[in-house]
Every structure is written in structure tokens, then in C-alpha cells.
């Protein structure tokens, strides 16, 4: 009787040992929980990054809004020059280019009259 028990016990022990070595359901669920926690933390981090990114983009677009106004005017004035608009009134087509006027050099006939009423000796070219 004792001998029989002694013979069967090692097999059982071996079987138990094998089970101990492989992860049990408890271990697995704990591992999964651990992973989920890590994922949660990562998710939160990502969300925070997104928030920061969003904020940065908002700041950027705010800066851009203020910049765009300047760029718009710069582009507009250069475009105006390109399409031969009077650089004084920015409305009429320029017909006169004055070599001696300090700034608005390309003038429409109306502005030319106004400006060169005072300076009739300016050297002007027709465009
Ligand atoms: Zn003009
Ligand atoms: Zn002039």
C-alpha cells in the first residue's frame, strides 16, 4: 500500500510542477491587467501629447493669423505694383512713372495731376 502510494506520488508531483511552471489563469489575468494599465497610461500620455500638439497648433495658427494680415498686405501691394495700379491711390491704373517722386512713383493720371501740380518739373515717363 505504502509502496504503491510512493510510486504514484512522484508522477503527481511532476505533474504539479509542470503546472506550476506554466502560467496559471491568475498569472495571465494579472499580466493582462498589467498590460491594460500600461496601455491606459500610454493612452493618457498620447492624449496629453495630442492636447499639447493641439495647443501648439492653436498658438501657431494664432501667430499665423496675425502674420497673415501682414503677408496679405505685402502680397497685395506687390500684386498691385505688378498689375500696374497707381501706387498712391491703389485704385486706378497707373499711367505715369515718375523718376523723381520719392515713393509713389507709378501714378494714375489723377494722382499725377495732384502730385505734380506742386512739382511740375519732375521727370515723368508715360507707361
Ligand atoms: Zn492714383
Ligand atoms: Zn514726381
Automatic annotation (TrEMBL):
Acidic residues bias (residue ranges): 1-14
Chain spans, region Disordered: 1-25
UniProt superkingdom: Eukaryota
Listed name of the protein: Uncharacterized protein
Amino acid at each position: 500500500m505504502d509502496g504503491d502510494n510512493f510510486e504514484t506520488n512522484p508522477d503527481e508531483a511532476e505533474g504539479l510542477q509542470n503546472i506550476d511552471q506554466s502560467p496559471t489563469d491568475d498569472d495571465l489575468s494579472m499580466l493582462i491587467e498589467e498590460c491594460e494599465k500600461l496601455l491606459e497610461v500610454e493612452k493618457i500620455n498620447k492624449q496629453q501629447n495630442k492636447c499639447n500638439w493641439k495647443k501648439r497648433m492653436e498658438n501657431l495658427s494664432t501667430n499665423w493669423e496675425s502674420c497673415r494680415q501682414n503677408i496679405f498686405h505685402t502680397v497685395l501691394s506687390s500684386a498691385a505694383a505688378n498689375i500696374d495700379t497707381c501706387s498712391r491711390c491703389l485704385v486706378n491704373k497707373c499711367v505715369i512713372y515718375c523718376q523723381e517722386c520719392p515713393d509713389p512713383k507709378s501714378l494714375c493720371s489723377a494722382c499725377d495731376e495732384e502730385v505734380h501740380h506742386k512739382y511740375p518739373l519732375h521727370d515723368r515717363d508715360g507707361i
